Amino acid sequence: MDACIKELYRIGIVPVVAIEDANDALPLAEALKKGGVSAIEITFRTEAAAEALRTLTREMPDMTVGAGTVVTKTQADAAIAAGAKFIVSPGFQPALVAYVREKGVAMCPGTATPGEMEQAMSLGLDAVKFFPAEQNGGPAMLKALSAPYRNLRFMPTGGVTLENLQRYFALKQVFACGGTWLAKKEDIRAHAFETVTARTRAAVRTMLNFKIKHVGINSKDDAEAKQNASLIASIFDLDCIETPVSFFSGTAVEVMKYQGKGSLGHVAIGTDNVDRAEYYLAKRGVRFDESTRKVDSLGRSTFLYLEGEIGGFAFHLVEN
User: Fold this and answer.
1) 18 in Cβ contact with 185 (< 8 Å)
2) Distance between CA atoms of 169 and 171, rounded to whole angstroms?
3) How many CB atoms lie within 10 A of CB 97?
4) Secondary structure of the chain in the HEC alphabet?
5) Which position among 33, 51, 85, 129 bears the catalytic label?
6) Above 90 in pLDDT, residue 115?
7) H/E/C letters for each residue in 169-234?
8) Domain VOC: where (predicted)?
9) pLDDT digits (tens, 9 = 90+) for 202-259
10) 116-151, pLDDT tens digit by residue?
11) Of 99, 102, 66, 61, which is closest to residue 84 (Cα–Cα)?
């Protein structure tokens, strides 16, 4: 996967914006970043697109800035000259895909059918845009398409909203979601950037979907763990289930068979994507114990401990 696509995977949400006045680009990007998202796709639907893109790549080098609605080589050249880190098109043009890739820029063409997806794969792409997502069957269609194309990653765009965001992110092959709802044209015109920040913050919270999964209690050995887990289960009429390393009293309490991480135990925090959670928490200054990371067959992290303790408890992320 291209390095820029990997970065978009970690960010997860790609605001798709149409900027009519290049002077609005910087405050808009700052509003998005304040809400937690450091990516933006500027559509080439307005005369101000190239200048807006140029402004952001110059003033906010840590922002992952791309160009959208690119349908010609001339537009691609203008976007690349302005500093676009990725190019997105609404449809699939093999010649345009090849042209952008020859320039060394990440390309994410729009696809809607298996035929277009296979053509993209034949050109060496492993990530495509699924557009328009809702009109083409939404998460159900994308789930069906994911089965035969297990090595392909998707960015659904078109009709994605806060209300259906989790349904798209429930599909593991979705590397990011593009959306226009975060920064609508009328918001940008009215300079309603606080509204943009609030929508962005809500989208990040929805995407990460943090939940307390269970609390872990340390024990000195198997016998003590079984005794304590059985007692908890009997008091609250829960099932007591043994695992290789612990006993679970129901699903909310795990009693370890040994002195695990944390002086007193641990707290498991569920999230819909551990990699994204790590990315966003790291921006808040959180550090992680790399030795504890577990990954799945797709290379996605599924388990990771934070460094240190809070109130005698260690904390780890686990996939919901």
Assistant:
1) yes
2) 5
3) 21
4) CCHHHHHHHHHCEEEEECCCCHHHHHHHHHHHHHCCCCEEEEECCCCCHHHHHHHHHHHCCCCEEEEECCCCHHHHHHHHHCCCCEEECCCCCHHHHHHHHHCCCEEECEECCHHHHHHHHHCCCCEEEECCCHHHCHHHHHHHHHCCCCCCEEEEECCCCCCCHHHHHCCCCECCEEECCCCCHHHHHCCCHHHHHHHHHHHHHHHHCCEEEEEEECCCCHHHHHHHHHHHHHHCCCCEEECCCEEEECCCEEEECCCCCCCCEEEEEEECCHHHHHHHHHHCCCCEEEEEEEECCCCCEEEEEECCCECCEEEEEEEC
5) 129
6) yes
7) HCCCCECCEEECCCCCHHHHHCCCHHHHHHHHHHHHHHHHCCEEEEEEECCCCHHHHHHHHHHHHH
8) 211-320
9) 999 999 999 999 999 999 999 999 999 999 999 999 999 999 999 999 999 999 999 9
10) 999 999 999 999 999 999 999 999 999 999 999 999
11) 66
Domain ranges of the chain: 3-207, 211-319
51 catalytic? Reply is no
Q: Which amino acid is at 296?
A: D
Q: Residue 205 phi/psi, 5° resolution?
A: -60, -45
**Most distant CA atoms of the chain, gap in Å:** 72
Which pair of tokens denotes residue 72?
Answer: 């010609």
Residue type present at position 98: A
HSE-CB of 14 using CA atoms within 13 angstroms: 32
Phi, psi (degrees; rounded to nearest 5) at 274:
-65, -40
**Cα–Cα distance, 43 to 9 (Å, whole number):** 20
State the fold for domain 3-207. TIM Barrel (3.20.20)
Architecture of domain 211-319: Roll (3.10)
Per annotation, catalytic residue among 41, 254, 278, 319: 41
Query: What is the distance between the alpha carbons of residues 183 and 54, in angstroms, rounded to a whole number?
Result: 19
Q: List the one residue out of 7, 295, 31, 53 whose CA is nearest residue 155.
A: 7
The answer to whether 111 and 130 are in contact (CB under 8 A) is yes
